[in-house]
Amino acid sequence: MAATTATTDDQERGLARFAQRLAGWTEKWFPDAYVFALIGVVVVTLAALVNGSSPKVVANAFGGGFWDLAEFTLQMAMVVLTGYVVATSPPAARIIDRIARVPSTARGAVAFVSLIACSVSLLNWGLSLVFSGLLARAIARRSDLTVDYRAIGAAAYMGLGAVWALGLSSSAAQLQATPESLPPAVLKITGVLDFGDTILTWQSLLMAAVLVVLTVVISWFSAPQGRSIRTAGDMGVDLDDTVDPPAPATRPGEWLERSWILPAFVGLISLLWLVFQFVDLPFLKVISSLDTYLLVFVVLGLVLHGTPRRFLDAVAKAVPATAGVLVQYPLYAAMAAVLTGATGRGGLSVSEHLASLFTDLGGSGGFAVVIAVYTAILGILVPSGGGKWLVEAPYVMQSATDVQMNLGWTVQIYNAAEALPNLVNPFFMLPLLAVLGLRARDLIGFTFLQFMFHLPVVLLVLWLLGTTFDFVAPVQP
Predict the structure, then answer these.
(1) pTM value?
(2) In this structure, what DSSP letter does residue 149 have?
(3) Segments making up each domain of the chain, as ranges
């Protein structure tokens, strides 16, 4: 094992080797992402005090805003949970086994998993993580194909590092389409923006397509070959995914737990409700609703698992993956409240001063690049899955209004830039690493290489497409 590692390290040079050294340094010195959120509270508090706010005003804003995102926190936790539950259902497992037989070469397998990860992440980023991870394991189990387990594991993560925030589970886009989830201060600035203003514009769809192609191409060319390949066996990973069937029922209550009747009934009535939603409401309004999205995935998970017992067992396994969302989002809500509500000298808040700063930077494509770089840098320090949009939205969207930048595209600027830090910060790798049986340092070399190419391409595309929009005044609910 040690000899294999040494040989691989000697053969892997350049960006990949540098990225692995960087990953080792960050794993040693960087604290948990929650600590970064706490640091954010300190920074925002100090900024408000420097701005002239009194300690009482800052403390009241912090406490008063702490639970502003309670509903959205639960919703985002459910995005992760439902994606995990659907991906681990028996029908999904059968689909994964069939898909795993498609690639015919090791390099093609890595690129294929990358494509699947990106495609599924446009539907649900939690589903992408687990589904792609299980697909990587299934391909690695093939006796007729020798694939590098690190490269294919990194490919399974590409949905989170490339396009997830441009898809249906985008936190920022979901927030902007759901007025009851937006703090009043943000809603007043942005109004309501449904998916037709954000992720479903032709510019956003084009950007997603460009990034998917770029990701797949890099995955192909960066996949190790020959003696450089390290298999799951080389890395000591057990690929046996056999699940023992549930024990037979011994009492009436257990019979109900193992019956398909109740899930079928709930699935039927949910399907009927969804049909009426599309009949009674505009299409974009229905698919832009986060509540609708989550209801469909909860019921889909229940139906696919077949029985309440299997569904509840899957939920129990999924719960740990939601921990980061549950404890971080209240801090983001409090930070947003301090930024927008703690006024200082001249009656201005920190967010209003930041809005003036970004306004001075100019409009059109240049504004897009500056906001993207700022968002990416902040995302490296504070990974959030989009929750920090509530922190940035007050001043970013006010700045966009001041320079007459399209507000829907401003959300997409944030979304495209929000995905970039995931390629260098391992926070959102955690659910995938649990599936793969690997450590972050095993994947970072490949994801960092993707980051090196994605960063300039994202900035260029945002700059070019930002010039194609006209400004539209906010629409209040």
Answers:
(1) 0.75
(2) H
(3) 28-237+256-466
